[in-house]
Amino acid sequence: MHAVLRVALADAERMDLVARNVAKAAKPPALGRAERRALTPGEAKTLLSVLSGDRPEIGASTPRQPGCLVSGPA
């Protein structure tokens, strides 16, 4: 949100619609780091079966077998 406002206000400042870009002076909010986890092979297969037909080229690599590609039905 901060980046969008900063860019929009920079455009407005360049076109003399605003006196200054106050977003440049604002401290952007810190981004939280949510814990991420990989899908289990079963979850990946379920996801791919739900998506089958939409994008058959989609695939997922499992963390336990990084070289193995689990893909949906073609």
Provide structural commentary.
This protein is 38% helix and 8% strand. The protein has 2 domains: 1-28, no CATH class; 40-74, no CATH class. The chain contains 3 helices and 2 strands; from the N terminus they run αααββ. The protein is elongated. The chain is mostly helical.
Give the topology, please:
Blueprint: H1 2-14, H2 22-25, H3 41-51, E1 59-61, E2 69-71
Antiparallel strand pairs: 1-2
Q: How big is the Rg?
A: 22 Å
What is the H-and-E element order? HHHEE
Strand content: 5-15%
If you average the pLDDT, what whole number results? Answer: 77
Helical stretch tally: 3
Intertermini distance: 39 Å
Percentage of residues assigned to helices: 25-40%
User: Structural class, from helix and strand content?
Assistant: mainly alpha
Count of discrete domains: 2
- Please mark out the parts with pLDDT under 50 across 5 or more consecutive residues, or reply none: none
Strand order of the largest sheet: 1-2
Count of DSSP E strands? 2
- C-alpha geometry: elongated
User: Mind summarizing the main beta sheet?
Assistant: 2 strands, antiparallel
Tags for this model:
2 strands; single chain; mainly alpha; 2 domains; 74 residues; two-stranded antiparallel ribbon; 3 helices; elongated
Brief write-up:
With 74 residues, this protein is mainly α. It has helices spanning 2-14, 22-25, 41-51, and strands at residues 59-61, 69-71.
